[in-house]
Design brief:
The protein is mainly α. 51% of the residues lie in helices and 5% in strands.
Length: 78
Amino acid sequence: MRANTGIRDRGSSMRSHRWFTPWLLLGPAVAWVLVFALWPFLNTVFLSFTDARPLRTPEFVGERTTSACSATRCSGMR
């Protein structure tokens, strides 16, 4: 039988953590990546397929913007 010394075992403290503790610690980092990396990337892809102008709703133009540059005059990309 072990005497109660008031000091917890190191192994028992690791088992006392709940399953969501790592997710709580990773949450702010994941939110940072979503807001400052993923959202601007997705917004850029969306805007590349629209005729977006300030103070107007974006009009979807599809591949019209990319097909104009795929002609022979733009193939050199000088």
